[in-house]
């Protein structure tokens, strides 16, 4: 099976001289056979040598390092490794193969190239070394097989999504305040603990009485004011590219043979998720709870096993009936996720769809999910930070003052800081005009940024963010890849496109920023470095 997006390695240099490699790219493959799994290969240091293949018409030797970074899996004959080159000015004459590479070992292979007709010696060229290996076996219901799955490019490029926390907890909407605050969506748990800091137990008794149980809130869960199209329009205006509804109550058309604890039977008596997905093409995954004992809760249908008879079937309903693209689990409680994920991955592949799942489904997942925090440094592995607009709650907490919620500046700063490391409409008014520097970009491997500086990259440009209003002279000591002849312009704001005079000094890269650019934006200032130099 060809998996070139995972092992594609761009190389640049001079024909008949040398090719230089900016970075290594790793590729995962599916299960190879019943006896073993495919390796994880890296392409390293492709070099156009001065050698040619003996007996050939001066077919030049391009040497490429192949490294097996997997700790246990071998490259074998079954993987049918084939290494080739595509180039604008070089012609592939001879591909390379390799039949054995042990874990944590490297080897050098040789491919043969010639200049294409009409290409002079010493001409500039670009090219991609491509390794293909492995076969298209189905995912198996075990962690080793599922761990070879990658988050898809549409998710990697999206950058900004929105959680929708809406459930029974939205009725009492209580989580205390300031230092005592806790997630409002945990109301059903905290109301039974008289010693917990939120004093939810005391609040519940004083407000609703000792005999008022949590499920009685279900009758007050309403869809009044729920206009899915307006929600989707708001998310789009905010610049979000995906959404994830979250609840401890099924807000979708769950089979009543599994459980009647859903919005179809109580409260709105409506398929709230279906209505939202009719207005947008994004999908979501639920938050699950678990108990080992039988509890006769509202909507209870007798079952033998919660995981097998409720959790797994409802995950399948969301995945197959709603064409879910993301399954966002929580907590990582007992589960049958190996069964669910392997079947789901195999099914979506037959449809040509690429889906993803997080690290809280009981598996390693495609991405980790730090909560109300980001990493302190660049992290290569895929991750998604998540938080509420409330200072410390995902669900609505009526006790939080309005001025404590994230505003446009807070959201933009959080987004920029997150991307650099790997009021919604107000935030969107900044995010969308600066989207070129956010969507479809990647983190800069050298540094996430020092001080108020942050960076993102693409293959054609480099983006500089400054987290506060800059002065007329901005000196950057980080090793920004600027060369004489490159162009730096303002991105976004009223001075969009303005060229910024730039020079390299002993102190670093110095940008001279005009007043129009300084006063023409808000929240975060962004500059685009275009690779226009032929220096």
TrEMBL record:
A GO term, aspect molecular function: alpha-L-fucosidase activity
Pfam families: Alpha_L_fucos
Alphabetical UniProt keywords: Glycosidase, Hydrolase, Signal
Any single biological process term in GO: glycoside catabolic process
Every Glycoside hydrolase family 29 N-terminal domain range: 135-423
Signal peptide: 1-17
Domain of life from the UniProt record: Eukaryota
InterPro entries for the chain: GH (IPR017853), Glyco_hydro_29 (IPR000933), Glyco_hydro_29_N (IPR057739), Glyco_hydro_b (IPR013780)
Enzyme Commission (EC) number: 3.2.1.51
Family recorded in the similarity comment: Belongs to the glycosyl hydrolase 29 family.
Protein name per its UniProtKB record: alpha-L-fucosidase
Organism: Fusarium agapanthi
Phylogenetic lineage: Eukaryota, Fungi, Dikarya, Ascomycota, Pezizomycotina
